[in-house]
Specification:
The protein is an alpha+beta fold. Helix content is 28%, strand content 39%.
């Protein structure tokens, strides 16, 4: 039995968990100051490529005003970044293998996609880069993307589980010592 990784979406404003949205504007707070006159906030708007992590049922049932996106980077861009940190090819390969095996819980990798209509590199999802975007903004950007991919079950649930594992970590102040 074959389990496809993705469904190809075309010119659709419909979004759900596991959707890849490219070029989405997100706010980055730069300064925040509270004074007697009020609050002074400075922010920058940047664009990211991301994947929707908000539960599908919450989006469909309109239980959220904002969706959660995690930043994604293509495997080739990840390798370029690693080389800029002077990592060797062996270290980069070992890092990617660790992500595939689930040994680097801040990251997750999803498969590549190739068809006659569309292709995409492997994507590395960074759980340390989380953004909240209004649902309407995400829908508009998704539709503007034209062709885009939606992660299918069970890979979507596997991503969600990896995201949960990253957040459920608990660091203890003192480990158990067996004397």
């Amino acid at each position: 039995m074959e389990y496809p990784w993705f469904e190809l979406q075309e010119n659709s404003a419909d979004i759900t968990q596991g959707d890849i949205i490219k070029g989405c504007p997100v706010p980055i707070l730069k300064e925040f100051d509270i004074s007697e006159e009020g609050q002074n906030v400075k922010a920058e708007i940047v664009t990211i490529d991301g994947i929707v992590l908000t539960q599908a049922c919450d989006i469909v049932n309109k239980k959220v005003k904002n969706i959660i996106l995690c930043a994604i980077t293509s495997k080739s861009e990840f390798e370029v970044t690693q080389r800029s940190f002077r990592k060797s090819e062996k270290e980069i390969r070992k890092s990617i293998e660790g992500i595939i095996k689930g040994q680097q819980n801040a990251y997750h990798i999803i498969n590549n996609y190739k068809s006659e209509k569309f292709s995409q590199d492997y994507y590395i999802i960074n759980f340390k880069e989380i953004f909240s975007v209004p649902v309407d903004v995400a829908r508009a950007i998704a539709e503007k993307n034209g062709k885009r991919l939606r992660l299918c079950p069970p890979y979507r649930e596997h991503l969600s589980q990896a995201f949960a594992r990253y957040f459920i970590r608990v660091g203890l102040p003192i480990n158990i010592r067996m004397d």
